[in-house]
Specification:
Length: 405
């Protein structure tokens, strides 16, 4: 019954946001930035003039902004431009699958672009509902307190990054997978947890950080094994868990290398996309190889982030970005306050590996460590205003809020 309540609560909060974005989209004038926005083909332009398409786009077109345009492009055309390699494939693949299965009949009365936008929204609604339930279960497993578990899920439903969890972004799916993986690992279901982490790594690059969370829980288990034969078996399983977790990330980087470097993978590029790419100066698979192809470890992600979005150490620390720093300040202060408030948990770190009895403070350590690592990496490197929503999936700050409520 509690799970059903949280599902209904999650969906109610999402539908409320959809109404708010509709009203805001109608009332407020659109900002037209000079960013990635490939043109539609002529057939789609005509198809999107139908009544069904126009009504649908009138209601949810406010979600089709910024990164959402990249994801919709990936659903429809794949990785036609090098800059799209910054966006991982699981979310667009699931949204495309939704458009070809459950929402396929919608193509009878609306254009495919509108169907894709609906599909991505439905995927996020489902993922957010599951994430809310998983957060409740995870909080209860960690804090052993029903009321605090309920409050943390309530706060999650009204977190300040909520609009990103409705729009075609990876936030809801990644939160769903992150909470599910941590739930499994908390219950020592390490194989299941590593398989879900693998899906995280196929959703966002920072899914790799979850391997550190898995490692902490495994080290705790490692210390409790008494015999050398058990330790050898344990080491074998640890290797398997790590390989399972990393394979999807490695596969995607290999796919990018095959598409843009060795050219062993090929995709069709429509004329209108080819013209748009050439006009904007975007690197395409038909062009010469990029510098990252010649590196010892040819990772496309770091190169694309740096060359297209100027993501790098302190690269965003400029006077003109002060308003964005102010925008991110509440979330930054909340993360700092969380780390300071749970200071007693840090004192347990030296006993974490040796204590056989696991206290609530012990259970908090991996979650706080995960938050701190992400925080220390994100603050000096990524665009500062984006710090609003990488931490919408951090359990630690929700625990602080519910304990202080």
């Amino acid at each position: 019954m509690m799970k059903l309540t949280f599902v209904l609560l999650a969906l109610l909060s999402r539908f409320s946001l959809l109404i708010i974005q509709f009203l805001a989209n109608v009332v407020l004038p659109d900002h037209i930035p000079d960013v990635f926005n490939p043109p539609q083909d002529n057939d789609q332009i005509i198809a999107c003039q139908s009544i069904g398409s126009r009504l649908t786009l009138l209601f949810i077109s406010g979600l089709n902004r910024w990164d959402a345009i990249y994801f919709k492009h990936l659903m429809k055309y794949g990785y036609t431009y090098e800059n799209s390699l910054a966006f991982f494939p699981l979310f667009p693949a699931l949204s495309w699958l939704m458009s070809r299965t459950l929402l396929y009949p919608f193509q009878c009365f609306m254009c495919y672009d509108a169907v894709l936008l609906c599909s991505a929204t439905v995927v996020n609604l489902i993922a957010f509902a599951i994430a809310t339930v998983q957060l409740y279960q995870l909080t209860y497993n960690v804090l052993q307190h029903e009321d605090l578990a309920i409050r943390s899920s309530l706060l999650f439903c009204i977190n300040p990054a909520s609009i990103f969890m409705v729009a075609p972004y990876t936030e809801s799916l990644f939160a769903c997978l992150t909470f599910s993986a941590m739930n499994a690992i908390q219950q020592k279901k390490f194989l299941k947890g590593s398989m879900i982490i693998a899906l995280c790594c196929l959703t966002r690059s920072n899914g790799v950080v979850l391997i550190g969370f898995l490692a902490l829980r495994l080290l705790k288990t490692f210390n409790l094994l008494p015999y050398i034969t058990n330790l050898l078996v344990f080491a074998l399983w640890v290797s398997i868990y790590f390989i399972i977790s990393l394979v999807p990330f490695i596969w995607f980087q290999y796919y990018a290398y095959s598409l843009y470097c060795t050219k062993t993978v090929q995709i069709d590029i429509s004329k209108h996309l080819l013209s748009y790419g050439q006009e904007r100066g975007y690197k395409m698979p038909i062009d010469d190889m990029s510098p990252w192809c010649y590196r010892t470890i040819p990772l496309s992600y770091s190169y694309v982030q740096n060359s297209h979005w100027q993501v790098g150490f302190l690269a965003y620390y400029q006077v003109k970005q002060i308003p964005n720093f102010l925008l991110a300040l509440p979330m930054i202060l909340l993360c700092v306050a969380t780390a300071m408030t749970f200071k007693p948990c840090w004192r347990h770190c030296k006993h974490y590996m040796v204590d056989r009895m696991e206290t609530s403070s012990d259970r908090m350590i991996p979650y706080l460590a995960h938050m701190v690592v992400l925080f220390l990496v994100a603050i000096p490197v990524i665009h500062i205003q984006v710090n609003m929503y990488p931490f919408d999936k951090e359990r630690g700050k929700y625990y602080l809020l519910v304990l202080k409520a």
